[in-house]
Amino acid sequence: MNEILWRRKAFKQLLRLHHEHQVQVRDAISLLADMPASGNAKALSGHTYAYRLRVSQSRVLFDWDGVIHIVSVQEVKNVMNAPTDIQIIHGPDGKPAFVVIPYAQYIAQQNEPDLIPHGVVSRMVDGATPIRAWREHLHLTQDEVAKRLGISQPAFAQQESVARPRKSTREKIAAAFGIRAEQLEL
């Protein structure tokens, strides 16, 4: 079973889709946990990303190295066949082993905020706030988080129900979760 992580950019692209389509894409991505047994994914060669998953009117681009990294969710009308400036080096088994990319692109990728687990994305598609989705993903109770924050459980419950809490609140809750505050800015 593979872990599935989302780049924030891909998650924001998912949120731009109609809700019914968000659910379709989320469910199709959930099946990627069984890679390589997942039959809908296609290995790409000569592209920036290693795999593509077709879901109705969208394409999900991702990499897989034992962990699924959802990089982009694109509507078909936005997909372009632009030339790439990367090189894929295949190993003796014929599978991609290394990717050579321009240094500027590498630096840009290093500066991206941390990835978001698929479980968090899935809960948010179902309507949970980012704070609640992360708390449930981390298997924490409201009481446990409230104790870490030094506040009461009802006070935390109120903070958790807010869709876009203040920056200072996000920073404190992120510290209590052990994640970066940017991961709550969804």
Give structural notes.
The chain is of the alpha+beta class and 186 residues long. It contains eight helices and eight strands. The chain has a six-stranded mixed beta sheet. Strands 6-7 form a two-stranded antiparallel sheet. The longest helix is centred in the first third of the chain and has 12 residues, at 19-30. It is elongated.
Biggest beta sheet attributes: 6 strands, mixed
Poorly predicted spans: 78-83
Order of helices and strands: EHHEEEEEEHEHHHHH
Helix/strand-derived class?
A: alpha+beta
Helix-residue proportion: 25-40%
Tally of extended strands? 8
Distance between the termini: 26 Å
Strand order of the largest sheet: 2-3-4-5-1-8
Please tally the helical runs, counting DSSP H or I stretches of 4 or more residues: 8
Query: Could you tell me the radius of gyration in angstroms?
Result: 18 Å
Overall residue-averaged pLDDT value:
82
> Which shape, going by the Cα principal axes?
elongated
Strand content: 15-25%
